[in-house]
Design brief:
Shape: elongated
Order of helices and strands: EHEHHEHEHEHEHHEEEHEEH
Radius of gyration: 24 Å
Structural class: alpha/beta
Helix content: 25-40%
Largest sheet: 5 strands, parallel
Strand order of the largest sheet: 2-1-3-4-5
Strand content: 15-25%
Length: 284
């Protein structure tokens, strides 16, 4: 598969590298212009270079490159082009400098994409495949596990999906890097990569006094209810792509009453055949 190098000092670009790896590429982020110049031969040997413009000026270079010291990425581009003219380069940057944009667009095999144009992560990844001229079947997107405090259920589900059903490693939010994002930003980024979601509805929170005999007064954690609603809204309640796994005793939101749940009170393995059939319905 193509080697893709991303030269960008923004930690958030690790998310792009991770998504490219989900698609079967070999991708790596180089975090500075100086590091990129130190590895200039690796850049020239890559299949694709994704390059930011606005980065700190490399210490090894005299100040004053193209358009001044706020354009260290252009210095990297110049050095790459000395070694290889046919390397596809996507300059993915937030620069508003019209001269820089013109210089990039005038360079053969070079494409400028603004970080301010509102492109989604999927659109950027699709553009990368298009630039490489690839018509490939991407790896199946990883399933997303929404969970509360039940660690046994969470890990049992992850193991069943990955090792018994041979799906890609499921996404569990707290296991993924934060790279400077808020929780909701991190959730939205990873949620956008999944087309199959498992919601573990387990009796985590007590909403009655300890002496109350009504076991129905136990509820799933608030984050589980929020994320369930998010996925039901984005993927569609009737799509079958949001699979609800239920462990009683549990009080469920009344506005989703009637939706069929899979009972996992006897464990994930015991409910395995039902889970497998639900997955087959949406993946075949």
């Amino acid at each position: 598969m193509p080697d893709i190098l991303i030269v960008d000092d923004d930690l958030a670009m690790d998310v792009l590298a991770e998504n490219l790896r989900y698609r079967g590429h070999e991708a790596e982020r180089i975090p500075s212009a100086q590091r990129a110049l130190d590895r200039i031969e690796d850049l020239a040997a890559a299949h694709l270079l994704i390059l930011d413009v606005i980065m700190p000026w490399p210490d090894s270079r005299p100040a004053g490159g193209i358009r001044g010291t706020l354009t260290a990425g252009m210095e990297v581009l110049v050095e790459v082009r000395k070694r290889r003219e046919d390397l596809p380069v996507i300059v993915y940057s937030g620069t508003q400098d019209s001269a820089i944009k013109l210089a990039v667009r005038s360079t053969p095999n070079c494409l400028f994409v603004s970080k301010w144009d509102g492109s989604t992560l999927k659109e950027i990844v699709d553009l990368i495949d298009q630039t490489l001229g690839l018509v490939i079947k991407p790896l199946p997107p990883p399933p997303f596990i929404v969970h509360g405090r039940d660690e046994v259920a969470k890990l049992s589900l992850k193991n069943f999906l990955q090792n018994s059903l041979h799906l890609p490693e499921p996404l569990i939010l707290h296991e993924r890097p934060n790279v400077g994002r808020t929780i909701i930003e991190k959730f939205e980024d990873y949620a956008s990569t999944s087309q199959l979601v498992f919601v573990l509805l387990t009796p985590d929170d007590i909403v009655a006094s300890e002496g109350d005999p009504d076991d129905a007064k136990r509820r799933a954690r608030q984050n589980v209810i929020f994320e369930m609603g998010f996925f039901l809204g984005t993927l569609g309640r009737s799509s079958g792509r949001v699979i609800l796994l239920y462990k009683p005793p549990l009080d469920l939101p009344s506005d989703i009453a009637g939706i069929v749940y899979i009972d996992i009170s006897q464990g994930i393995e015991a409910a395995g055949e039902k889970i497998r059939k639900e997955i087959e319905h949406v993946t075949n």
